[in-house]
Amino acid sequence: MELIDQHAKKIMEGCKERAREAGLKFDNETLEYIVTNRDMIELSPKVMIPTLYDYWVNDVRVLSGKGMYEAYPNNPYETVINTRPAISFYNDNNPDWLNVMIFYHVLGHIDFFQNNLFFRHTWDTDFTGQALADKRLIARYRSEKGRWADYVIEFARGIDNLVNYFGEVSGKIMPVKRKIGKSDYYFDIFLQKEKNVSQNDYLKEISRYNLLQKNGEQFFEDQFFAEVLVKYPEFDALYQKTLEKKEKINLDVIQYIIKHSPFLKKDKNKWMKSIMEVVRNTSLIFQPQIRSKIMNEGWASFWHETLFMKDDRIKGHEVDFARINASVTSMPKVGLNPYALGMRLFYHIMDMENRGCYSLEYFRLKDEVEKKHFDKARGTGMKFIFSVRENLCDFTFINSYIDQEFINRHDLFVSGKRLNKERMSWEYYVKSRKADDYKDMVINTLYHPPDIHVDHKKTVEQGPLYLVHTLEGKPLKIDFIENTMTGIEYLWGGSVRLETWEPVMKTPPEKKNATFWSQMPPLPASNDDGEKPKEIEWKKVLYVMENRKLLKREI
């Protein structure tokens, strides 16, 4: 691995100038390295962070990746890391014209990393340096503690998808006081909800507070609350209780275990907290990348195509570009290509905004011909997609902008699979061409970890760590429950409870007589595999992990 030469760096700096003129925004400093095709596969198992701490599963993936490369040699184009400065890796055998295309693609990624608000919590950190420090820390614990360090890593990684990602991001975008102020609690909660005072008494208290503040008393709040305690001696205790409750509500599962685990509070086990913090912080860095893959790749593909075609340095290589670009951004009929879908959706959004289609006038149109020829020539499409790039993630991007016009324009559909009994083979068919069905299909492929939190009240009252899974229409993966809860039991140092939901077949009402059932309407049409659709209902169950034995019972 080495830095690119001055010739390639000059090409990159030229791409930066053109990209900035087009509206992209990114830091001046970037680092570019060249590596071999074979070495490129060693970067991807660690999600493109070569300084990330070693973990045995990564080593397994590297070996399997090398084996796959031996059988099917491939030519990955680039890898880019969201760090300050941004670091990117390129193959050592790329011609100049191909580097122009790839550099534009990388600059699109960097612009997305440094301007999309879902990455806001990563803007102020040098994760490459932090990852190197974490790697050294874990190496030291491995030398001191042996295999127990890897056990802690494995157990923490089992729940690293339960981090409070949105809380972390919202705290950066809209900073708020972590603790509710004493005056806010007194006026907004205590007087109105706890004491339910009359409006007249409430206004008197506000006037008294404002008067003391107006007089410029240095410690006017202390004076004010001294009088409050005379009237309400229980105020301080209730205020502290509210602070503790608010703090515990905001803790995710890993944070809660780190702070409250009796096992980790022992002096001999405190070192485990450091490893858990490393795993949690690393997960928070990668969360926005997982949640914005379609947008991110679509944005980068949009710009490498837009800028490359205007670049005079690619003359004579238009056909070569078309061939490679088609292989990267072609829209498959069956399956999903995030590069293609994201890029075409950005083009679609820009066109719709330029024509003024995101307006009440357009949505009121019922005639398809009028919709097709609707054009207000607003010319604000480019500005609009920059706003989309800044404020959305994959879910909001897909849910907001995949519409019937987009489906019709690209002839998209949801495919189904069924058994042809005559040929005894599977066949694919067009299941739906509706935008809502296509949108649901894409959304179902997106990353969506389960919503699991700690019930602090039950944990304190009952003793075991009590986890609650919020039902969102999907069950937990049963195969993973036992191993995951075994790890949580070890880190907690005691029994663990998990309250969750599982689907069961809905039982039909008992047949009262044959005549009644003979008059029932026919069943709905069969699904893809030829079986009748089955109705389910959800039942609440409790998993209990104690002494590494898992039990389950209905609640």
List keywords for this structure.
about 550 residues, globular, alpha+beta
SSE map:
Layout: E1 2-3, H1 6-22, E2 30-35, H2 37-43, H3 56-71, E3 78-81, E4 86-91, H4 96-115, H5 127-145, H6 147-157, H7 165-173, H8 182-194, H9 199-214, H10 220-231, H11 235-249, H12 253-260, H13 271-291, H14 293-308, H15 318-329, H16 338-354, H17 360-363, H18 368-372, H19 381-391, H20 394-401, H21 404-409, E5 414-420, E6 425-432, H22 435-443, E7 452-454, H23 456-462, E8 465-469, H24 478-492, E9 496-505, H25 514-518, E10 536-546, E11 549-554
Parallel strand pairs: 2-4, 8-9
Antiparallel strand pairs: 1-2, 3-4, 5-6, 7-8, 9-10, 10-11
Helix pairs in contact: 1-4, 4-14, 5-6, 5-13, 6-13, 6-24, 9-10, 14-16, 16-19, 20-22
Molecular structure report:
This protein is an alpha+beta fold and 555 residues long. Helices cover 54% and strands 12% of the residues. The chain is globular. Residues 44-48, 55-76 and 511-527 have low confidence and may be disordered.
TL;DR?
Helix content is 54%, strand content 12%. With 555 residues, it is α+β, with helices and mostly antiparallel strands. A hairpin with a 4-residue loop joins strand 5 (414-420) and strand 6 (425-432).
